[in-house]
Specification:
It is an enzyme of class 2 (transferase). The relative contact order is 0.03. By secondary structure, this protein is mainly alpha-helical. It is 76% helix and 6% strand. It is built from 27 helices and 5 strands.
Length: 649
């Protein structure tokens, strides 16, 4: 009787194996069904010859047989092929129909990879139709499905699509966040096309928000990936040209017109090559020449040439762009001609169905000459753009913070593996470390004692520095709360775009200031200049920082930890002055007298109460005491502050 459970389990296992084998045989027979096999071969031949109408008929017959045989695997494949066939003949309705059937069958068969692929394609179709909200939902679903099967490469590619979509409707902050998320998935891969595309998306978002230097930096990162012919082939020549064209546009906005012109002309080596991209570059070159020299015949000729080409290929969006540039070109010399081009640009903008293009055309037209109803339409379009942004921002906020279960499990699994590996490494090296410590204690006891004594001296400085880092971390966490509050506000209200961008700019500058305050300090031969730069960095229209006495030779022979301490204390005093004192003048003198550094710091701010100062200056006092120095101060409320620092050297 004791053997019964084991025997039953054994028999159950055998039964499962038999059933599995039978199922495999059935599947094998289904795939080898002669009618389906013959039709598959015929369909492949028809597709190779481009006879897609006949391929559709044959595929329909194959699907009927597969449904009759209950061959779900081939039904799924057949729906995919029928989607491909209808796509080739340009039948959008049946393309969408079979694309959805493909997804539904994939879902029924729990085929996550094909479900993700179908959703991705649906998103792309909607994106091309400028149905951005629906496209975002499809892309988001596809990304989650890819992550369920740990396909981080395709998830990264989806985030590039999402970033481009958000950039398209002007939601630049969200676009940057999506691109950064995508980089996390792809930065350790060799997927150069998507990686460079993500850096390009960051560059464009930075450019459109006025951070042109950062945009240039991101473009350089994208272009740096095209280091050889193999990498250029992976990224794509057209993409590289697009990156360079955008870099020239950045130089144009920086008013570095000569640099922009050089890049445009490099892109136009083959002037006889009448391609869409070549004409776009010509138009950009013409606009740059206009900005540099005013109206000129070359700009007019290039734009007229591009206009004729775009008319011939009926490229509405490109016509709109060129007509807008022509309206600007003639704005100062021929108002009627300028107005004509502006009106034509507005008509083409309306044809594209892009509210942003209509908004830009109305803006140019109103600047030249406005008519009744222009301002009303202008305000209406602007509101429509803002509503589109808000709707997509709401969707993005929910998608970004709705971390699915599979992602949580993956993160937890990775974390557990890291901890396990770390513990194993510690266990392997523990005995060796102990033996080395004992050997060092036996052989160099005296030197260890001296080292510990010196270490205690430096430890106080490190403790102060560690305190500063913790404070910086805490402030950074608070900045994260600011960002969360701002995003919550975006979800529940109709914010003003400029106000939102201002808030983001404030948050960004605060984070940058915190980072700067905790960056490393150069303590070598360039330390005098480093200290001078510190004073200059706090100089502004509101505060005048004067370095009264300062001999750069006094730092020779002074140890690094003393230099760092002096630098950090002065940095803290300057920061407090900037944030709290409302001072208009700061005077600093740095001298060396009788093997002692003497630093005097004075401001004409509002001063402070001495009880408050004991807490506020505790960190600075600890730093100075750690190097056996002395910090004294003299202050009264509303009468400024005076600090004296003495340090033996």
């Amino acid at each position: 009787m004791k053997l019964l459970p084991v025997t039953s389990f054994f028999l159950f296992t055998i039964l499962l194996l038999v059933l599995s084998a039978c199922e495999s045989v059935v599947k094998h027979k289904e795939i080898r069904n002669p009618e389906i096999t013959n039709l598959k071969n015929k369909i492949a031949d028809l597709r190779n010859r481009g006879v897609y109408d006949s391929a559709i008929v044959c595929q329909g017959k194959a699907l009927e047989i597969a449904v009759r045989l209950k061959d779900s695997s081939y039904v799924q494949y057949g729906y995919f092929m029928q989607y491909q066939n209808y796509k080739k003949v340009g039948n959008k309705d049946f393309t969408a129909k079979y694309l959805q059937k493909w997804y539904d069958m994939s879902e029924m068969r729990n085929d996550t990879l094909w479900m993700a692929s179908a959703k991705q394609i649906q998103g792309t179709i909607l994106y091309n139709n400028e149905e951005y909200e629906e496209a975002f939902e499809k892309y988001s679903t596809s990304k989650k499905l890819y992550l369920e099967i740990n396909d981080t490469i395709n998830a990264g590619k989806l985030l590039l699509n999402i970033a481009n979509l958000q950039k398209k409707i002007g939601n630049l902050g969200a676009s940057q966040l999506s691109a950064l998320d995508g980089l996390q998935y792809l930065e350790s891969t060799n997927n150069l096309k998507s990686l460079s595309g993500l850096y390009y998306a960051l560059a464009v978002a930075s450019k459109e928000t006025g951070r042109l230097k950062i945009a240039e930096q991101r473009l350089n990162q994208a272009l740096a990936m095209a280091k050889d012919s193999a990498s250029r082939s992976k990224i794509g020549i057209l993409n590289i040209r697009k990156f360079k064209n955008t870099k020239a546009n950045i130089f144009k906005e920086l008013e570095q017109y000569d640099k922009a012109i050089i890049i445009y002309e490099e892109l136009l080596v083959d002037e006889k090559n009448d391609t869409l991209e070549t004409k776009r570059v010509n138009a950009n070159l013409a606009h740059t020449l206009f900005l540099k020299n005013g109206f000129n015949k070359k700009s007019d000729s290039l734009l007229q040439n591009a206009l004729s080409y775009f008319f011939s290929i009926k490229k509405t969006s490109a016509l709109f762009s060129v007509q807008l540039k022509l309206a600007q070109l003639y704005s100062e010399i021929n108002e009627s001609k300028s107005l004509k081009y502006a009106i034509e640009a507005l008509k083409n903008a309306k044809k594209t169905g892009n509210p942003t293009s209509v908004f830009e055309a109305l803006e140019v037209k109103i600047h030249i000459k406005h008519e009744d109803g222009d301002f009303t339409n202008y305000v209406k379009i602007r509101k429509q753009i803002e509503v589109n942004k808000e709707n997509l921002s709401y969707l993005y906020a929910n998608e970004r913070f709705d971390l699915d279960t599979s992602e949580k499990k993956r993160i937890a699994s990775d974390k557990a593996k890291i901890i396990s590996d770390k513990n194993a490494a510690q266990a392997r090296n523990q005995n060796l470390i102990l033996l080395l410590i004992l050997l060092i204690l036996l052989v160099v006891t005296f030197f260890i004692y001296q080292k510990i004594k010196r270490r205690h001296k430096v430890e106080k400085i490190k403790t102060a520095q560690a305190t500063e880092v913790r404070i910086a971390t805490k402030v950074h966490d608070e900045l994260a709360n600011d960002i969360h509050n701002l995003m919550s506000r975006l979800e529940t209200s109709d914010p003003d775009k400029d106000n939102v961008l201002d808030k983001l700019d404030i948050i960004y500058n605060n984070a940058r200031d915190i980072s700067k305050q905790n960056s490393s300090v150069e303590t070598g031969k360039n330390f005098p200049e480093e200290l001078s730069n510190l004073f200059r960095s706090y100089q502004s229209e509101e505060v005048n920082v004067i370095l009264k006495k300062y001999d750069i030779d006094i730092w020779k022979g002074i140890s690094s930890h003393i230099k760092i301490t002096i630098y950090r204390v002065l940095q803290e005093l300057l920061t407090n002055t900037k944030k709290h004192s409302n001072a208009a003048l700061v005077m600093v003198s740095v001298e060396k007298k009788n093997k002692e550094l003497f630093i005097q710091y004075t401001d004409n701010g509002k001063g402070f109460d001495e009880e408050i100062s004991k807490n506020g200056l505790q960190n600075a006092e600890n730093r100075i005491h750690a190097i056996k120095g002395k910090l004294t101060f003299d202050t009264e409320l509303h009468n400024g502050c005076k600090f004296n620092i003495n340090v033996p050297v």
